[in-house]
Amino acid sequence: MISQSVIATGLATIMKPLQHRFVRRSRDSRAYRVQKTLSGVAPAALASVLISPVNADTFGGVHYDARTDELVATMIYRGTNPSHTFTLQWGVCPEKADSANLYEIAADVLDADWNDVASQPFRKTVHFSVANLACRPAKVTLRTAPRFFYTIIVPRAPAKAGK
User: Fold this and answer.
1) For 77-97, how does the pLDDT look when each residue is reduced to its tens digit (9 = 90+)?
2) pLDDT-based confidence at 8, cuts 50/70/90?
3) 3-state SS class at 99
4) What pLDDT, on the 0 to 100 scale, is given for residue 12?
5) Where is 35: in which H helix or E strand?
6) Within 10 Å of residue 149's Cβ, how many Cβ atoms?
7) Domain-embedded: residue 159
8) What is the pLDDT of residues 110-121, one digit of tens each?
9) Per-residue pLDDT, 10
10) Same domain? 112 vs 66
11) How many CB atoms lie within 10 A of CB 142?
12) Would you say residue 19 lies in a domain?
């Protein structure tokens, strides 16, 4: 892991030539003051991004289980415990299907422990029921922060027994 002093030294080296490159005005001008303020803020902001651990959930794989009428997803995430709870927040079903007779809908995968400290990697298989999904067959796009996507086709709802 890169130490904070190495990052700070590297940022100072990178930012030094940039501090006065674009604006050459007197010290009394507003443009000079704004640029000097930003040149001091940028290294600190960049250092905080590089030093802090990123807590992102992503997909190890997703498939549709016809037997249980569920989406089965393997979630990969970091945290202090393996018992994160994942839920789906469905988007709105469109009124019309596309030319392939598929609806397109998105669902956000929400991690109830999203702010858990990202200390260890974990994998967890979760099951999301699609039994109440009204717009089927559908191309479902699952989304997690920050911009991980997985698209899967969910077929028509299985026929109910006795009908």
Assistant:
1) 999 999 999 999 999 988 887
2) very low
3) coil
4) 46
5) helix 30-51
6) 11
7) no
8) 999 989 998 999
9) 47
10) yes
11) 19
12) yes
Instruction: Mark whether 147 and 95 lie in a shared domain.
Output: yes
Element (H, E) at 6: helix 4-15
Position 28 confidence tier, pLDDT thresholds 50, 70, 90: low
Taking the CA atoms of the chain, what radius of gyration do you get in angstroms? Answer: 24
What is the model's pTM? 0.63
Quick one: CA dihedral 130, 133, 139, 141, positive or negative?
negative
> How far apart, in whole angstroms, are the C-alpha atoms of residue 153 and residue 145?
21
Taking the CA atoms of 42, 77, 129 and 153 in sequence, report the sign of the dihedral they define. Answer: positive
Which pairs with CB-CB distance under 8 Å and at least 24 residues apart come from 42-50?
Answer: 42/15, 43/8, 43/11, 43/12, 43/15, 46/11, 47/4, 47/7, 47/8, 47/11, 50/2, 50/7
Q: Which residues contact 24 (CB under 8 A, 6 or more apart)?
A: none
> What is the rounded distance in angstroms from the CA atom of residue 148 to the CA atom of residue 150?
7
Same domain, 32 and 93: no
How many helices (H) and strands (E) are present in the chain, helices listed first? 2, 7
Tell me if 8 sits within 8 A of 48, measured CB to CB.
no
Q: Which domain does 91 fall in, by range?
A: 58-154
Q: Tell me how far apart the alpha carbons of residues 71 and 49 are, in angstroms, rounded to a whole number.
A: 34
* Residue linked to tokens 């930012």: 15
